[in-house]
Amino acid sequence: MSAQIELRAEFAFDPAGGRSEVEELTDRLMLELQNLADSGGGIDDPALSVDLATCRLTVELVAQARNFDDAVALADASVRAAVHAAGWNTPEWVLQARRKSAGLLESA
Prior knowledge:
Elements (H helix, E strand, L loop, with lengths): L2 E10 L5 H21 L4 E9 L4 E10 L2 H18 L12 E10 L1
Antiparallel strand pairs: 1-3, 1-4, 2-3
């Protein structure tokens, strides 16, 4: 049995470094998300959007794993790994104020 899910995670960020720093960091994050997708580890179709007016960053991707729970865990861990690889830290990741949703795309 396998499950394919789409994860959408929204984060608040501090634009203290200005627009150019936000663009640089989000470019690095997208590169790391794409590297994960290219590695063949069950992550596909990453997307990233930024709203500077509300200081929100949204990450979307598709994850495939043995079941729904494993796919959600893979997606969450992949986003966190990409955030770290891009040079951001994730203190209190579990407690961080963010919105996350995951929907089942396919189950076999």
